[in-house]
Amino acid sequence: MNCVLIEDDLLFQQVIERHIQQYKAYSINVIEKCQTVQTAITAIKNHQPQFIFLDVELLDGRGMDILDAFEKIEFEVIFTTSHDKYAINAIKNNCLDYLLKPIQYKDFCSAIEKLVLKLEAKERLTKIREIEAKAQQIQEKESAKLMLQSKDGIQFVPIKDIVALSSESNYTIFYMLDNSKIIIAKTLKEYESKLIEFHFFRCHKSHIININSIKELGTYNTAIMKNGMEIEISKRKKKEFLELLNQS
Fold it and tell me: Within a 10 A sphere around the Cβ of 175, how many other Cβ atoms?
């Protein structure tokens, strides 16, 4: 865990460093030591620590001046102070914990244990948000549609229902999950870049397939699709195709 130590009294700096060295449960790395408000602000911006030890009163101002310099506080704060319990109660709401000088080792350990729990909770929340964002992306892709203009007019086709695309001269044939076909007067290349983000793969110069619509792999380098089609995988594309299946 990376931290910035903000303390204008060198003796108390040494006390905290000694406690850090003695503490073996988790590794704590002091990336910079500061004695003033401005050097502390600069250090936090440069290093983006997970937490800071923050003295309430510094040579050129208050510890709160440092926090006020940040629109959003991304780091945890452990105050160090010589104030009595009434002053401590006033600042407790703005920090994870506080250490009353002279700093006792057991109090130091208690503060770090609180810190670890808070950082672990943050990490879990970050992972949950990443999963939710991924789920949202999947949901959006599931409901995405492709506009196709054929001789029969404009259709909005669910992309998940497209099994494969094949080229015939300057035409592209869309093969759908229900075994219907849509013929479009455009080349296969026109659709390749549009569909790649939806898990489609150009497996042959004449074919693009929906990876999610593969039922099984056939003999002789073919993919058998959910609508019964059997589509050739070119030798040149086979390695890339198998790597994509592994990722899927």
Answer: 23
For strand 2-6 and strand 29-34, is the pairing parallel, antiparallel, or unpaired?
Answer: parallel
Confidence (pLDDT) at 137: 80
Alpha-carbon gap, residue 11 to 9, rounded angstroms:
5
How far, in Å, CA of 79 to CA of 91, rounded? Answer: 8
- CA dihedral (39, 45, 51, 57) in degrees, to 10, reads 30
How many other C-beta atoms are found inside a 10 Å radius of the C-beta of residue 54? 28
List the chain residues with pLDDT less than 70: 85-93
In whole angstroms, what is the distance from residue 244 CA to residue 107 CA? Answer: 53
pTM over 0.90: no
Q: What's the confidence (pLDDT) of residue 87?
A: 67
| Tokens describing residue 45 | 């911006």
